[in-house]
Amino acid sequence: QVQLVESGGGWVQAGGSLRLSCAASGRTFSNVAMGWFRQPPGKEREFVATISWNGGSTNYADSVKGRFTISRDNAKNTVSLQMNSLKPEDTAVYYCAAGRWPTITIQSHVNYWGQGTQVTVSS
Length: 123
Description:
The protein is mostly beta strands. Helices cover 0% and strands 53% of the residues. Strands 2, 4, 5, 6, 9, 10 and 11 form a 7-stranded mixed sheet that branches. A hairpin with a 4-residue loop joins strand 7 and strand 8. It is globular, with a radius of gyration of 13 Å.
């Protein structure tokens, strides 16, 4: 069992930056692939970024490539999402996820979800 708790969401103007963090507890964090998904208002949840157990491999949605960076600190059991050059279309509830690499990119293969944190980007 893995428990995930997100933090760092909030309101920002377009062009600004936010950093989301996810604290994990439970089973051995360093063996688990981690990721971020988001659900924009009125839309389905979508993949944002994932990172392998050792941080050696990452995947990003085309919509965030070059603007978002996923990272992890296995010593602190945390995974982060640095979001730069934010756009209004990045407004969503962001969810932390845990699962196996590389299938964690697929929502149906995610084993654990956080409760979500709201990110609002105003134009």
